[in-house]
Amino acid sequence: MNVPAPAPASAPTLGKDLLGLQYLSAAQILHILDTAEPFKEVSERPIKKVPALRGKTIVNLFFEPSTRTRISFEFAEKRLSADTVNVASTGSSVTKGENLVDTARNLEAMRIDMVVIRHGASGAAQFLGERIRSNVINAGDGKHEHPTQALLDLLTLRDHFGRIERVKVAICGDILHSRVARSNIWGLTKLGAEVAVCGPASLMPSRVEELGVTILPRIEDAIAWADVLNIMRLQLERMHSGYIPSLREYNRVFGVTSERLSRAPKDILIMHPGPMNRGVEIDSDVADGPHSVILPQVTNGVAVRMAVLYLLAGGSQVSAAAQPEDQA
């Protein structure tokens, strides 16, 4: 097996954990995106596997239901030849009263190397990372951050425009409850994009403008201004009452429809982290239309997560890591 050469002295490291883009520099974010590029090709091969993390054991610890994120991480781990274990809170010791740290320490006693955690409490990933030796990757914590989703969004933007700097991105919808929106704001602003947010006042965080974004009150304003609409899902499971009058009214006032987009001064790229509420924040003909990059986002998600896993494991020279198994 070829041993990857040491990284150049100028290559930024990520540290022990990936907790959020708030904590990363622009150079670190770009290093992840650059590392993801050769991993994209791995998914196009007949045998979609490289031995970069052979012998590593990764636990996917999901305290919230998730299909897209969990499966994307599983694909990334298996394509890097890691051994993976999935732990969901339903039916686990957590349901019986065991706390997060006890669960993680018991797993660590089995000599695991990494934990991918999704949790309903903001700060859970950091809390865990401070208490165990294994690498911790935040797959979404409360209303805080979802860093790998933002990284795949950034990679998708760079694929389309060839750059991120000066691209006008409007993040639309339920900003208040969205960890994806927060991670995107951190990543986009650090890489020089112009960022605006658009949505009902009831779904807008207080003092959000302090994050360096512009507030656009109407969806028509966002469409007239933006190069990109990144449309956030209405997180109905986090809404108890009073945030919006009804789903029909939300679609009437803030829904991204083909009729509204037809009045845009230019073609607008359409993004959505999924899962989508079709007919609410986005209409089906927009989600499936020619300017949608929702499916490329999903494809890029595997490459970005491969890059994060590889870099946290100490990887450096990606060209060697991306060699097929029979050449390694």
Gyration radius, rounded: 20 Å
Class per helix and strand makeup = alpha/beta
Shape: globular
Distance between the termini: 4 Å
In short:
The protein contains 12 helices and 9 strands. With 328 residues, the protein is of the alpha/beta class.
List the helices and strands and how they pair.
Layout: H1 26-42, E1 57-62, H2 68-79, E2 83-88, H3 100-108, E3 114-119, H4 124-129, E4 135-141, H5 147-161, E5 168-172, H6 179-190, E6 194-198, E7 214-216, H7 219-225, E8 228-231, H8 247-254, H9 258-261, E9 269-271, H10 284-287, H11 294-312, H12 318-321
Give the tags.
single chain; 328 residues; alpha/beta; 5-stranded parallel sheet; 4-stranded parallel sheet; 12 helices; 9 strands; 14% strand
Structure overview:
It is a single chain. The chain is of the alpha/beta class and 328 residues long. 36% of the residues lie in helices and 14% in strands. It is built from 12 helices and 9 strands. The protein has helices at 26-42, 68-79, 100-108, 124-129, 147-161, 179-190, 219-225, 247-254, 258-261, 284-287, 294-312, 318-321, and strands spanning 57-62, 83-88, 114-119, 135-141, 168-172, 194-198, 214-216, 228-231, 269-271. The strands form 2 sheets. Strands 7-6-5-8-9 form a 5-stranded parallel beta sheet. Strands 2-1-3-4 form a 4-stranded parallel beta sheet. Strand 1, helix 2 (68-79) and strand 2 (83-88) form a beta-alpha-beta unit. Helix 1 crosses helix 11, helix 2 (68-79) crosses helix 11 (294-312) and helix 5 crosses helix 6 (179-190). The termini are close together. Mean pLDDT is 90; it is low at 1-9.
